[in-house]
Write a structure and sequence with these properties.
The chain is built from four helices and no strands. By secondary structure, it is mostly helical. Helix 2 packs across helix 3 and helix 2 runs parallel beside helix 4. It starts with a helix and ends in a 36-residue tail after the last helix.
Length: about 110
């Protein structure tokens, strides 16, 4: 089974359409950007985070590329995702919770 067939079968089990060709291309680019900017394990998790946040693959890729560029700056975001002060992001802690401690409205 090739990737396209597997994704179509998996999408059917999930009750959702498979990604369109442009979405698939953006997801693969997002995964590559995440992996190259940090560690390989960031690739699938970055795609999951984008989907969970409801961010289109193309938009998530643009954000990841900005993060990659910021990580190259000495005062920017390091490969672990923390800024120069050690914060994981504005209003979000390293575990992904917002300032109120919630992981997200739809978190289990």
């Amino acid at each position: 089974m090739n990737a396209e067939d597997w994704l179509a079968a998996f999408a059917e089990k999930l009750g959702t359409p498979p990604p369109a060709p442009a979405e698939l291309e953006a997801l693969l680019a997002l995964a590559g950007t995440a992996a190259h900017a940090s560690e390989r394990t960031a690739a699938p998790v970055a795609c999951w985070m984008a989907a969970r946040a409801g961010v289109a693959p193309e938009d998530a890729l643009a954000l990841a590329r900005k993060l990659e560029v910021a990580g190259a700056d000495a005062g920017g975001v390091d490969a672990g995702g923390a800024d120069a002060a050690g914060a994981a992001g504005a209003g979000v802690d390293a575990a992904g919770a917002d300032a109120a401690g919630a992981a997200g409205a739809d978190a289990p």
